[in-house]
Here is the input.
Amino acid sequence: MNSAEIITIGDELLIGQTVDTNSAWMGMQLSMRGIQVNRIVSISDRREEIIAALDESLRRVPLVLITGGLGPTSDDITKETLAEYFGTKLVMSQEVLDEVTNRITRRNLEMNENNRRQAMVPESCRVLANHAGTAPAMLFEKEGRIIVSMPGVPSEMKHIMHEHVLPMISSMTGGHTIIHRNIMTFGTFEAKLAERLEGFEKELPAMVKLAYLPSHGVIKLRLTGSGDDPELVRRTEEEQVRKLYSIIPDVIYGEDEITLEEIVGKLLLDNNQTVSTAESCTGGKIASMITSVPGSSAWYRGSVVAYDNNIKAGVLGIDPGIISRYGAVSEETVRAMAERMRSIAETDYAVAVTGIAGPTGGTPEKPVGTVWIAVASAAGVVAEKHLFADDRQINIFRSATNALNLLRKHIISR
Amino acid sequence: MNSAEIITIGDELLIGQTVDTNSAWMGMQLSMRGIQVNRIVSISDRREEIIAALDESLRRVPLVLITGGLGPTSDDITKETLAEYFGTKLVMSQEVLDEVTNRITRRNLEMNENNRRQAMVPESCRVLANHAGTAPAMLFEKEGRIIVSMPGVPSEMKHIMHEHVLPMISSMTGGHTIIHRNIMTFGTFEAKLAERLEGFEKELPAMVKLAYLPSHGVIKLRLTGSGDDPELVRRTEEEQVRKLYSIIPDVIYGEDEITLEEIVGKLLLDNNQTVSTAESCTGGKIASMITSVPGSSAWYRGSVVAYDNNIKAGVLGIDPGIISRYGAVSEETVRAMAERMRSIAETDYAVAVTGIAGPTGGTPEKPVGTVWIAVASAAGVVAEKHLFADDRQINIFRSATNALNLLRKHIISR
Here is the structure.
């Protein structure tokens, strides 16, 4: 079992009402386990389409994962079609009925005919219990090939993949170990990083592969180690991770899927310290990113979003003379913002940002994308100037992530 | 020409590194023009896969749209494979070469072999100029069927669809008029809305269809009118839009793709008024949504993100007695936040939010998801209590959108 195909069923996918995010998630899970996804096919809720697509996939690969078309309404026909395809009939599953009844009554709702219909399953399938919803998943075997049908709701699909499908795949690919390590970097470009890692890549042992996964300024380096000896894979990969830390220590900020706001929170929590923010052009974006981290109230105090110069003066208490002398977008102003915020919020650190997000407001001396960032602490203030892009949303996002990164570097340098 | 298929090419789609958002966008554009998408197929950058998928699609439909595999690197083989498939050879296109040279030199870069390779196109194709990137798109005809190959970069694909493919489709479906009207609603549920619109739906004239497109609390009602007489389609649809306004005036907030933050900005700009925000549990989300609107500095002054009670007292200037007596999440506190913010920011309106986003911090009296929202104006303060969900991100987002909606209602009521 080394290849698979994915079939996603639903008219909503073809008319563009829903973006198919399930396939990418399943593709990543399968490829991380050494199974190559050959094709992803999206089709409508029509009997002939389902049968044709399944026929074609089963001619090519030994594993077919299907999502969608298992809901309680009349346009969901996947279950009936699969029963027909595998020459079996629908029977009531007491186990599924109990599960559905339990879910429905827990929400103080009445069981109806549609709910009962969900407990009917093809007689020859193995039911894969769905504790995340009311539609059961089903596993069929045919001439040594495996077909799994799951609901299209992403949370339910993921539940069934984690509970049933991925453990089955791991036991079938038996013995072969695959270990992933994700190294998170910020503050560089993919081409630049590839240049610095050219020698590293050339010397990589055969059992370890490297992938660059860039996303909004963060570049995730994914090392995939595989082999038959788990301990050897683990040790070999660990050596490569250590090597990465020695080659690019300046841009690595963490591991796994950690974000800049999460690592900042972790560092502050470890040091029992706090931070506040004073934002102009980011307009609350930094505060919003920080407060999306659960538990951030333990280390984050708040923000003054000084979109207007009167707020910079009136609420933050910045000397209006600084703004009129140097301008709202200047080193002097951003330093004053950080110092004043730290003082009024009584925090260990304060981060400040002021800049021109665009599309208007640029001048020849200070074009759109000009941004000043500062971090204040007991040790004083550091400030940085950046020139980002023409695009407002990109400027806001890159200002916010660079501010968080400057704060991170400031905390670890102390 | 009434059906099509989409083929997306790229290993990154199959291993889940990239979510295929192109297909949904193309599917929507095609279905809006009366063309049914039969299938979406994602395949790898392999010659045999491309040929097999194209063969299959051309057996089923008269129009095939292909994206991906047109980049300058060696793993991009779509162009070579298409030349082989259509029995033609690659020739240098002076037109494309000029376009590429222009783009490269404008960025002060040197033309290299890879750039020149992009100007090689299959001799029998019609080149569709790409003003959004360096890879040209190509149109092939074979036995009355049309095949279009476009770059996989979403902005380039959309550019080529708008410039070349969609106009071609409109001219081919000739004479048939399709007009869309999008009515934006907020503050209700899909099931509830469907109930209120049951009679409306039953009485819809045959030439107008209604679709519900829910997304994060906003439900877009899309009316699609189609017919041979443009004026009749337009008029019939306009009558239905007016009917919608009379049935559900309380939940419609605008048309087309307008957001709540955009409509609030438009109303304030029209009235020459301003707003500020004081946020606790939303942690800067409202400020961030507002300042993502270009030009918002004309009507938005700023925010105090009072994540900590000391900021509520020290910066906002709320009487600490109110917080200790009624709690940070209370009607009294949210009213004081709105009033104080309006006063210190000197704005016409101020919006305040305080609540328990979770996952921790809930009590039996004030469970996670409890949120107070207030709007202050010269006329006084209105406040609302909500009980949202268990999920932190959902609570933040729903608090922010409901606050913007309360502000909107408050502005139009005056």
